[in-house]
Amino acid sequence: MLIQATLTAFGLISSTLGSQHQPRRRYAYGDECWPDTETWNSFNATIGGRLIRSVPSAAVCHAERYDSDKCATAKDSWLDSFWRTNQTGAYAATLWEMGETGKCFIDTSIDAPCDQGIVPHYSVRAQSIADIQASVRFASEKDLYLVTKNTGHDHLGRSSGKGAFSIWTHNLKGIEWHDSFIPMGAPEDANGVPAVTLQAGEQWFDVYRAAAKQNALVVGGSARTVGAAGGYLLGGGHSPFAHDYGLAVDNLLEMSIVSADGKYHVINQHSDPGYFWAVRGGGGSAWGESIKLFPNVTDAGYTGYGDLSQGFQAIFLKPNSSVKSFNQTFAGFFNLTQIPGVHGAVGAYPSTWNGYLDKFLRDPNIGTNIQDTSRLLTTDVINQKSEDLAEFLVRNGGGGFNFIGKVNNDERDNTAVNGIWKQSHALMSISIDWADNATELEKHEKRLHAVQISKGFTEIVGQQGGTYINEANP
């Protein structure tokens, strides 16, 4: 079964944005050419008053923005991913609010410093395609530094920017199912497939629940509040079901975008195959302000997630499997737990996908300063470099794994995703974090350490190795 979704991801794709050899200056708040208040007020009137003065998530607890009720809510909800995605200036990782030098913390006094950090200065709470078009055109006319934010989960910080103008797509909601969808411009004899349209602000938690009511399975991620039709999908989108049904982007049928000149386009393999190829895995935020996409939803071996921070722990799952199959597959793990000195447990948990969502779907690392570095592990690397990997993990405090299994390589439309996905069994990542009150030097040293880890990964997997663009080291 197929799913049609919607997303927003701004990109410089139009010649109206300047010559390739003479890039135009993009203006941010504080620059002399930043529009004056009257200009902003006039623009705001054209979009129904949906222009927002964006501030960091802790700003309501400080100085002139102090609000006792909102501050209490912010403190109670600081690690709540649902609350964070509902705030214009909040991000899953507070690193992308403050950067290395900003200061605005939730646990300091009212009169403690609270600056803007790298949270955009203004945001448009988009509620229609027209809002996005108007915002893109305004940014183009005024040469503004423009970013797009959906839920704020971007590990690379592409949805924030110091002094930027932002389009916030989180409030574009809507799920519509289709019995027989045919992409625009398809041959007359093309067969329709079941599909669903997702607006840009839809999140996996709600999409999975809607899919369960349709007895359908969406090839999506494992975090509840990540946008289903955002950068996750256009960056490739690894999934517990990639082994059976490919990456999320492999299941994309069609998308609608607003390009950098403010024009609305519907693209697919028939209407614009080159452009469609590029947005599927080319890092969506580099290609357009996307409004509608269509990933595959299938009717529903083992894939999952684990880490080595406290020994080894993981959750594996497989559609349409059985306890007998699990016991046979994981017999080696059962045997390991019988070795003297080894403490562990291995067990099967029969469940529906919806049952799994209720018990295990979470949003890790919310409200923290965290930066990832990661690499895909191919068959050759796992077979030939396992000892090197183990030593590397011990030296660097353990790591996390996404056990993607080999991505299903059935014949399908070509995408811009690197072919190494189909050779890889797992995505291994190591995260670097620091406290809010870390000094600038400490933060800088932590980020340099992440670079050194990336180099260490490269020494093991080789120059031909790859990673998941959405969880790479920025």
From TrEMBL:
Residues 116-296 form the FAD-binding PCMH-type domain. Keywords: Oxidoreductase, Signal. Residues 1-18 form the signal peptide. One of its GO terms (molecular function) is oxidoreductase activity. PROSITE patterns: FAD_PCMH. Belongs to the oxygen-dependent FAD-linked oxidoreductase family. This is FAD-binding PCMH-type domain-containing protein. It comes from Penicillium citrinum.
